[in-house]
Amino acid sequence: MRVLTDHSLVKESRDDPEVVQTKGRCAGFYKGGNSSLRSHIASFHYKEYSRKCKKAGIEENHHAIPDDIKEAREAVEKGSVGQKGGQRTLDGVVKKVQRPTAFCPMELLQRVMQHVVCCDEPLAVADAVTFRNVLITMRPKTVKSELLTYSTVRSHITNTFVDYMTRLKEDISRAPGAVNTMGDTWTAPHTSDPMFGLLVVWIDIQPDGTWVYRDEVAAFHKILGDHGGANLGRYLLLFLDRCGVTSRAHSKLGHMTNDNASNNLSSVKEVQRRLIKRGVVTRGEFNANERNLSCFRHVIQLGIEDFMEEIMSKAAVATKQAIWDYDPEDEGNLINGALDVIAIIRTLTVKRRADHLAYSRCICIQASGQCKQVFWCFQLEHPQLGNARNIPLHNNTCWGCAHGMLDVSFELQDPITLFVEHADAKFGPITTLRPKGGPTRDIPWSAFKLKKPDWIRVRLCAEIIEDANDYQQICSSTRSPTLHQVIPVLENLATRWEVKAKNTKFEPFHDALEKGLAKINKYYKKLDNTDVYILALLLHPYYKPDYIESEWGSQAEYDADVAAGELNPINWTAHAQSITEKAHYWPLRFGCPSAPAANDEPNAVSGSNNTRVDDYDRAGAAHLRNAHAEDGWKTELRHYLDD
User: Fold this and answer.
1) What are the E-state strand segments in 66-193?
2) Cα–Cα distance between 524 and 495 in angstroms, integer?
3) Which coarse location class describes where this protein primarily resides (predicted)?
4) Pick from 97, 110, 101: which is nearest to 139 by CA?
5) Percent of the chain with pLDDT over 70
6) Host H or E run for residue 202
7) What is the pLDDT of residues 468-485, one digit of tens each?
């Protein structure tokens, strides 16, 4: 009793007249016999009893210890540890098994909602008898009123969404800077409904001053009507108004990242027109060409598509003629220099009707379950290949599939060769020609047999696309901002492809490389429409002005261009510096109403040697409040760039 007594409780009980009158002066004590007290402790308070006994140096009473713990201790004393049925480990610490928490209908509703939303389950699952039986099995005491229904789950999802949008709007209202967006449209499978997704991105400032990168889903909505720029812009502004980025009285809208379809630029122009009409921005403050950013992963994909299109378009004519001229009695296959091997790989692996091959029926390696089973069996004959795999199907909407098709096909060249050798006996000819007024002609699988030089050509093509595929995956490997990587990535990819376009080893693909490079360069030139790419480079600690100086040139290169009579020479380092000084971010960040004009040259650098990032904001805020040209935000910026 002395061990478990809470003296503060006893004192409060004895000093409270109401408690004394109703329960007596010993209300804070347990009243009962010792045996009853010990049984009570063993059943309900052993953990606390054991802790306080150890703290006070008092031996635990045998009758106050639960039976299961006594049995475990006796088993340890008898040396039964490790024997069957004995206590394995005790570790000198007795832990009470955590009992299940009390049943909470709202918690159940929350979990079911997550199951429905995250697993893409129908709302009607709440009314399903089998699902209800699961809930009743987990808690037999469940009554009908506690079971969920379609309407309750639907209402909870709706209310949760409303709460989410309310919090999102509040967070965006506190954002100190602009809010950028990322949007895209696509078609839902099966239903073919056009859907629009919108992501908002901004920098949030925590109470301790820490900057935090935030990205949240602002919309995922069905689109009605055409997909022209006017209609998409109307939807886009509607979603921006709903989450608080824009309104009738203000606009926090920054830059907008979209894919490179022309209707996306038109939609940004529609947003610009409507914001100007509202009077919240001017044409000089919001320029659609400057605010619209290209998705650079999509730019790379367009380059891959043009590369593959050049290969396949040339192969289409050659393949058609080779098919019609094929003589089954001749040895060899259809290739023999007349047919591109990449077209052969695509024909063998992609489940589609290749109309350019001029046949009405096509069987490929992955055309049916039977074909796949045979192909998997041939793979299992080569244990070094690991588990049986399917070959990715190449199409223009699935990024990375072109490289996947070629790379996996090269790895599985032996199973593919075996399949082609045995497919005629198992499945018949790969296709049948039916010329008008003439007899049908069967084209056997053996006509598409690849030899060692053909597989080397597949590997070369895969190496070309691998360059683009590696850069394309940069955005998928991190949730951190990657805007600073756009210029280096596009330049490095173009450099790699230019080197291969001059290499005789890749001569069969030179024309395709030139077409892919033309597409990459087309969108690379469009980077000049906005300054954010250069700003992102300069403000990234890894690049700063060093990348521009080393890759584009500085004063020395500018002087050389002038001496050589170059038209419109540019000092890129000075150009990048001027772009940075034009930005109005720093005055807005620290609440300074104005700052020295960008064309005002600062005097000598201040004597302060404070250039560490940790002190940057603190020193910058003080300098901006002073707003002196010789000790203002431009000086701080130059400290950073020169460090």
Assistant:
1) 179-187
2) 13
3) nucleus
4) 101
5) 73
6) strand 194-205
7) 988 888 766 667 778 888
The two most distant CA atoms of the chain are separated, in Å, by: 115
Report the C-alpha gap between 235 and 241 in whole angstroms: 10
Residue 456 CA to residue 187 CA, distance in Å, equals 38
pLDDT of residue 200: 95
Q: Give tens-digit pLDDT for 523-557.
A: 999 888 888 888 888 877 777 778 887 788 778 88
For the chain, give the number of residues: 643
Q: How far apart are CA 117 and CA 259, in angstroms?
A: 27
With residue 352 as reference, give the H or E element that holds it.
none
- Cβ contacts of residue 45 below 8 Å, gap of 6+? 4
Q: Which tokens go with 33?
A: 């016999």
* Nearest Cα residue to 181 out of 231, 241, 253, 251: 253
Span 488-511, average pLDDT: 91
Query: Which of 182, 306, 296, 265 shows the shortest CA–CA distance to 527?
Result: 296
What predicted TM-score, i.e. pTM, was given to this entire model?
Answer: 0.67
Is residue 165 within 8 Å of 145, Cβ to Cβ?
no
Q: What is the 3-state secondary structure (H, E, C) of 471-492?
A: HHCCHHHCCCCCHHHHHHHHHH
Residue ranges of alpha helices (H) inside 16-90 are: 17-23, 34-44, 46-56, 67-77
